[in-house]
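tool=predict chain=A
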Amino acid sequence: MRYEQLPLPPPGSVVAVGLSGGVDSTLTALLLKQNGCKVIGVTMSVWDGHIPAEKTEKAFHDACYSPDEKENIEDCKKFCAENDIEYKVIDVSKEYNHFVLDYFTDEYRNGKTPNPCIRCNRFIKFGALLEGIKKLNIDYDYFCTGHYAKIVRPEEGLWSTDKRPCMIACASDESKDQTYFLCRIPSDVLEKVRFPLSNIKKSEVFELAHKANLSAANRKESQDFIDIKYIDSLFSDKPSIPGNFVNTEGKIIGQNKGIEHYTIGQRRGLGVSGPVPYYVKSIDAKTNEIVLAEKKELNSASLIADDFVWPGDAEPSEPFEALVKIRLRSKTTMAFIEKYNPPDDDKTVYKGQAWKVTFDGEQYAVTPGQSVVLYKDDVIIGGGIIVR
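tool=predict ok
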């Protein structure tokens, strides 16, 4: 299918820019300003202090959810003042606690591995933040961020329909492509979204930022959702329930600390030794049992996923082939995708129509709770949550 990339905001348009204090969002705002747009910088505030932060030089090491948020806001405020840009801070901490933090802990306690960044983009950055802008009576033409992705529209209807929704396409810089994180943003929201860095390589971003003397060009970039040593604080409301480590034959080979401490494919920190290295193969939330196995036993020929999102809600009616990605760091692989009709002995409660994804070649450590994202011609055509 052929697609057209939607144009960036023209001179004179009013553009709200999501500012984090990092080099990508800061340069995005500057480029739009230089192009003659009226730019309004907006920063979402998610930190409410309910997790005690250690008094160290850098408690959270520039993680996204961090008490360093105040410093980020000051950096954004300074940048906007220097460039005559209106600036607003919008408190979305309540929504963040519900849609991201609570979801994160609930999924782990159900034996799954969630992706907080995908949830944050869907419900916070492109959800609660936009609602907050509306409540401030800011009438904007476009909303822009520093993500590496493109907004495109198909030249003809999807799946034999007349729908031509806005869709997410891969960025020019493959090494920085962030489309996987953006897979659940609704097409109607994307209508007013643009990504000015879509055709720029990361090396060029730093070059432009240094030429503009942006302090953000010298700042360490945020890499994590939250510093790993603070993860336990998120689960402090309930005590962990220990359980058994078992092998694939059901024999008890050790004790786990509680299923929320583990994920599929994990090797380190198990505290179990054997004739070969053990990896987490599966997690049973009902029994608190974790099955350990050799690495080669973690390969899967297929997966079942549900809770799908489709561009413009145009769901396929027939089986199809597509490239799929089962986690951010995995390479895309060709797969056959078809509707899954559960047999009578499948007691799973599915969220909408479930789909079966059969890989051309086996994939390692397919993880329930993670997203499977479907691509055709470098464009996201759908995405769901892995059930098993």
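The first strand starts at residue 3 and ends at 5. The chain has seven helices and 18 strands.
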